[in-house]
Amino acid sequence: MHFKIEQYERWQKAGFRNRCIIAGANGLINLSIPVEGGRHSNRLIREVRIDNSHRWQMLHWRSVVSAYNRSPWFEYYKDEMASFYHTKYDWLWDWNLVLLQWTIKKLGVEVKIDFTESWQKDYLPGAYLDMRHQVLPKNFTSFAGDCPVYQQVFEDRLGFVPNLSIIDLLFCEGPNAVNLLRQ
């Protein structure tokens, strides 16, 4: 697999660049990283600073533990995952890359990652699968047909929720996660 990550796009509010969605006992939990300038930041994605005046890491980690401490693979991944929430990150770009690299390693897949050299509004048809503006917090469940089905922690209460954060799949399926994604 070969991914090219957009590094010259402008910050977009209401996207997944600073958030993920997990399932908790009482419903979906939107974990959002506060950024300096908030919704009105007009910086390149590489230049977005995390607003560490908030205790977001502690709150996010508590939510992750609460949601997944009963999942089959939480014990296996929790120490490494906790380290992300106990290390201060100044840049959203760095946080996202570290988590992406960790996820690829845990999935055990060979992935080549490159970064765009400049901004392009559109790519030639067929050149790339451009997902920059496709999956958003407001429509993430509408892509259910592409999502593998697996047993989730709170499925008995919420039903199966497609397209949650990759940590949901990892904590619930462990090393089998990659096989489900390949299907």
Describe this structure in words.
Helices cover 32% and strands 11% of the residues. With 183 residues, it is of the alpha+beta class. The chain has one domain. The strands form two sheets. The chain has a two-stranded parallel sheet with strand order 1-4. Strands 2-3 form a two-stranded antiparallel sheet. The longest helix is centred in the middle third of the chain and has 16 residues. The radius of gyration is 17 Å and the shape is globular. The chain starts with a strand and ends with a helix.
Describe this structure in a few short sentences.
By secondary structure, this protein is of the alpha+beta class.
Secondary-structure topology with pairs:
Blueprint: E1 2-5, E2 19-24, E3 27-32, H1 56-68, H2 74-85, H3 92-107, E4 112-115, H4 155-158, H5 166-173, H6 177-182
Helix pairs in contact: 1-2
Rg result: 17 Å
How many β-strands, per DSSP? 4
Average of per-residue pLDDT values? 88
Helical/strand content category? alpha+beta
Main β sheet profile:
2 strands, parallel
Counting DSSP H or I runs of 4 or more residues, the number of helices is: 6
What is the CA-CA span between the terminal residues?
15 Å
Ranges where pLDDT stays below 50 over 5 or more residues in a row are none
Helix content: 25-40%
Shape: globular
Strand arrangement, largest sheet? 1-4
**Which range does the strand content fall in?**
5-15%
- The helix/strand series, from N terminus to C terminus, equals EEEHHHEHHH
Q: How many separate domains?
A: 1
State the main characteristics.
globular, alpha+beta, 32% helix, 183 residues
